[in-house]
Amino acid sequence: MQESYSEQMLDALSGGQLEVAKKLFASALRHDDDDMLFSLAEELYGLGFLKQAKRVYLKLLDAYPDADELRTGLADVLIDEGEIDEAINYLSQITPASSAYLESLLVMADLYQTEELFEASEQKLVEAHALAPDEPVILFAMAEFYFNMRQFKDAIKYYKELLMQGVKQFSRVDLVSRIGVAYAQAGNFDNAIGYLEQIHEADMTPAIQFQLGFTYFQLKEYEKAIPALEKVVEMDNQFASVYPYLGQALVETNQLEDALRIFQQGLAVDEFNETLFKIAAETAIKLGDFALATKYYEEGLAIEPDDVSLVLGLSNLYLQAENDDDNIELLSAYVQNDEVDPQIYWNVAKSLTRVDQWELARKYWHAAADSFMDNADYLHEAFSFAKEDADRPWALELGSQYLLLQPEDYDMLDQVRALADDL
After folding, report:
1. Which of 170, 182, 226, 324 is the most buried (most CB within 10 A)?
2. Which residues pair with 103 in a beta bridge?
3. Which among 202, 212, 146 is positioned nearest to 161, based on CA atoms?
4. Neighbours of 172 (CB within 10 A)
5. Residue environment code for 210-223, b if the CB has 16+ CB neighbours within 10 A, otherwise e
6. Residue 273 has pLDDT above 70, yes or no
């Protein structure tokens, strides 16, 4: 049997013969029957030849104005072309009595999602589900919508309905892995692991493999998390999210040198990740490499100067090294902020005291007080300052509060009694 012009055109396209295909397309429009043209339109749309698919659909719609399945096909093309209003116009012509109405609802839902009109999209999906509650295409569309909207409880419900129908994969999406990821993203790690461990190796993408390792990490099963996360690095060493969790799992198992190496690899992939700088610095401190820790804190702050955890990490290192001038210089830019972390006041007060800047030190000891009157370490240090500063009433207040927390500190008890006797 001789091939139709439509078939010859598709053969020419597959062979890269675009000029030949163009001529065959014109012949197909003139000579091929309507069923063949309908198949051609679908094939052209799938191949991305939108203008040609649109011409075929319009020709057929002229011949069959009541064929609503042509409107849904045409709407798909128009949406991909960005002709949203025109697509809505064709879809709106399809009435609930039409056999294509269900398909039109799904196309409309996709359109609204593209336009980020999520409430309208959900309404179309809900209407479609009410009309055909067991239809797999609709169940999958509902599940994917809620998954992408991070409404994981609803997504899991519809994925499970598909599984109960015996559908384990839809549109190349593995439903078991989707459920596992949804549970993990919802923080339900105990349920997540049961699904994630079922996934076949052939279906394991780096993202799903990461979710498996991440779930082990959240369950504090670090011995399982480490090989699972290492597998992510093997699959895709540019997968930046894996490095903080893999490194921290190694820290939890006291493999500090390996953890630091992983953090360094992560920084090579994502050099602007302030979290990696922070945990790399903390690991360097545990290894006793304070110079390296200082380097990481400083590099992190160069990227994110408002990250308080980095500021305080570096400040604490300066305090430990009695590097008070650098600490004062570091914190001076932050103490002017009305919403500053009170720990900054405390840290700068310590350094100012040690360099004998008593007036400024007094200001910041008092600034920290409201936040730390239930902190025994602060109360003890502030008491020592107030006593040295000859502020006996405040020293007595601090010491008395300290004794409420540490009543067996008899040395402090003696000092407070002596202060009380002097007043």
Report:
1. 182
2. none
3. 146
4. 6
5. bbbbbbbbbeebbe
6. yes
Closest CA to 45 of 79, 20, 21: 79
Domains (ranges, CATH) in the chain?
133-203 (1.25.40)
> Considering the entire predicted model, what is its pTM?
0.70
> Would you state the torsion angle of the CA atoms of residues 26, 30, 32, 34, taken in this order, to the nearest 10 degrees?
110
- Under 8 Å between Cβ of 115 and 109: no
Determine which helix (DSSP H) or strand (DSSP E) holds 326, and give its type and residue range. helix 324-332
Residue type, 48: G
Q: How far apart are CA 302 and CA 384, in angstroms?
A: 35
* Amino acid making up residue 271: E
What span, in angstroms and rounded, lies between the C-alpha atoms of 305 and 252? 28
| Separation between Cα atoms, residue 321 and residue 376, nearest integer Å | 23
State the average pLDDT over residues 304-331: 93
Strand partners, 170: 173
235 vs 244: CA distance, rounded Å:
17
Pair of tokens at residue 211: 């979710």
